From TrEMBL:
PANTHER family associated with the record: ADENYLOSUCCINATE LYASE
Protein name: Adenylosuccinate lyase
UniProtKB keywords: Lyase, Purine biosynthesis
Keyword flag Lyase: yes
Length: 432
């Protein structure tokens, strides 16, 4: 299980031993209620089961030392709390009917938390995107200054990705919130399909169309892959913050609280530890994808090679993503932004970021693209080498100035040109 450092209490409770066995008991009782509706189990016996069936985790674990089988240990422990009606516990079902359906039930609980986490993050990112919609900054490609953009557009891009993450999540959540009560090899030989339908309806699950002794594991693999995609989104966002907080850039900074320490040796340090934490945990979740894919291949109608792995990856992935979503949402809520530094960084390349606009002005003046490119590029090289002003070099070149006016250069060197469609992008995203 995930270490407590990366657990939130609500998600940790879902994957606790107590809640797991309670989910098993909920499935068992739902099966008995279904049998009762079909006339198999008497009302009096069902009432006793509903009232008295219980367990202690310690007793189950002690019994498992004898049985070497956790479900048998569970059913025998529950049976000890009952009288003759105990014969109906686990009637007509196999272990995985209980375990897999309970997994669907537990994952449904986990999904409720993750869904709320995603909504909160989306809301915060939307608010920040709108706040910084017109806050100009340099856009970078390959880590190198490219052309002006806005911090709001950067965040709007994140907002759109979060929307895609939510869509993928809802699809995967629907796929994983399923149950199966179909017996030893999925033939319903000892239990009618109506029981499965009634059990799933009671637990808020969907009956899987067809199963073997287990639910098909491509469902679980898709789910883990989807959570890994969300984790990768968070990692991408966190990486941007880490870059923008570098000393040479320092356009944003994670909130640094009073009394917080950045280094045991260097009092001046303020490090993006939250975003680095997100990056590290994303690596763990992405590693679980391989395991989930390997779990799809089971022998014949079922083996248990997937079981041990899922005891780790299902709780750990949901717990880690819950923690990551909560933490990154807080990072975004408290993020310190330095608009003045963003403006200052626009100018550190001496106007090179306007080279494309100059080239296009020359094309509009009648030159071919190749001619324009070859006139402008040597000037950009001179700026890089000599750290001189790009516009001044252009103005001193008679060949270039035969085609351009000062008004052309004023327009080409105006960063507002690059921002003229920002509102349209926001409108298209519904960020109004």
């Amino acid at each position: 299980m995930v270490i407590k450092r990366y657990q939130r209490p609500e998600m940790a409770h879902i994957w606790s031993e107590q809640n797991k066995y309670q989910a098993w008991l909920d499935v068992e009782i739902a099966v008995d209620r279904a049998w009762n509706k079909l006339g198999k189990i008497p009302d009096t016996d069902l009432a006793k089961i509903e009232q008295n069936a219980c367990f202690e985790v310690a007793d189950i674990l002690k019994m498992e030392q004898i049985t070497k089988h956790d479900v048998v240990a569970f059913t025998r422990t529950v049976s000890k709390s009952l009288g003759p009606e105990k014969k109906w516990i686990h009637f007509g079902v196999t272990s995985t009917d209980v375990v897999d359906t309970a997994y669907g039930y537990l994952l449904k609980q986990a999904n409720d938390l993750l869904r709320n986490d995603l909504r909160k993050l989306k809301q915060v990112v939307a608010q920040k995107a709108k706040k910084y919609q017109d806050t100009v900054m340099i856009g970078r490609t390959h880590g190198v200054h490219a052309e002006p953009t806005t911090f709001g557009l950067v965040l709007a891009n994140w907002y759109a990705e979060i929307n895609r993450d939510i869509d993928r999540f809802e699809h995967a959540a629907t796929g994983i919130e399923v149950g199966k009560i179909s017996g030893a090899v999925g033939t319903f030989a000892n239990i009618p399909l109506e029981v499965e339908s009634l059990v799933c309806a009671e637990l808020g699950l969907t009956p899987q169309d067809i199963s073997t002794q287990v639910l098909p594991r491509d469902l679980h693999a898709e789910y883990i892959m989807t959570l890994a995609l969300i984790a990768s989104s968070l990692e991408r966002f966190a990486l941007e913050i880490r870059h923008l907080q570098r000393t040479e850039v320092r356009e944003v900074e994670e909130y640094f609280a009073a009394g917080q320490k950045g280094s045991s040796a260097m009092p001046h340090k303020r490090n993006p530890i939250g975003s680095e934490n997100i990056t590290g945990l994303a690596r763990v979740i992405k590693g679980h994808v391989f395991t989930a894919l390997e779990d799809i291949q089971l022998w014949h109608e079922r083996d248990i090679s997937h079981s041990s792995a899922e005891r780790i990856i299902l709780p750990d992935t949901t717990e880690l993503l819950d923690y990551m979503l909560q933490r990154f949402t807080k990072i975004m809520q408290e993020l310190t932004v330095f608009p003045d530094k963003m403006v200052a960084d626009l100018n550190i390349t001496h106007g090179l970021i306007y080279s494309q606009r100059v080239m296009l002005k020359l094309v509009e003046a009648g030159l071919s693209r190749e001619q324009a490119y070859d006139l402008v590029q040597p000037k950009t090289a001179q700026v890089w080498e000599q750290q001189v002003d790009f516009r001044q070099l252009l103005e001193s070149d008679n060949t270039i100035m035969q085609h351009l006016t000062q008004a052309d250069l004023d327009d080409a060197f105006d960063y507002q040109w690059h921002l003229r469609n920002v509102q349209s992008v926001f409108d298209r995203l519904g960020l109004i």
